[in-house]
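Give me the fold.
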Amino acid sequence: MKKRSEKGRALFYTRDSGGKHETTPSEYVRWAQGRAKELGVQFSGTPDAIEAMIRSGQSVDDDLFLDFGVPGNILSREGLDSLLKTVLNDASISHVFIPRRNRLARPDHPIDGVKLEDALRRQGVTIVFMDKTLPPLKRGRRPDIAELIVAAVDYDRSSEDRRELADGDYRTDVEKPKVIRNPEEVRIIAPARFDAPVDSDRHRQLLAQLNERAGTQRGKPRSRDPKKNPLGSRAFDMSCGWPLYRQPYGERFRYLCGLYQQSHGAECSHNHVDGLTATRFVLSCVRQHALSP
């Protein structure tokens, strides 16, 4: 039996049960191109090629394997079967790119999903997901039990009958959902069993004001142009270089280091300065500059 290459050729596989997200597979292929370059493996798939596959109904095109409009609980499908056959017969294949586990399968039984991964890894192939990489399984060695449990939980969750984000709702650079907001007509509203802490009319007015402000002020820097705001300024921590932000402190106020806040107190020992003290210092500097230019 020919020894499988450790860094050879890579294949790509994805599945879409609804067949409604024509643009998402091409974004996945772009991700695969980037990972192939990072890993130093050969990969010929392109976004244009997979878009052509969707339009023509193809399941295989060179390094690309696709099941479009096929439910995830159907474990025997043209694209997936071709992928498994190609891996079995071609020892130059070292990696298989799959965006997420639920793109491989949404099995009725979670163990079926684990078996699909096992079939690839026992052939000496590395499976690369967006959020994890699974190395090949060596012959005669038992798989890690913790890894099996995590995989089983992932596939069990993927098969639950619940509303999930569509592929297009995920960012393609990182495995995180986009920030989205459902329209008013599709939101689920239920009566609360306690008195509202804020008057509902006042709350609606506040939301409307915030939305209006977000549309006109978002992304606009403050005090960047001295001509527009000659008294504008910004305070920095001279130790770590981070800006200081004003915050109320009892009946007074103070300026707190941004690094100290972001690290939850783990970094930056010069974490705050009293607001009145800082103001007096600035005013004294202004006075000195004005009297002795």
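The longest strand covers residues 9-16.
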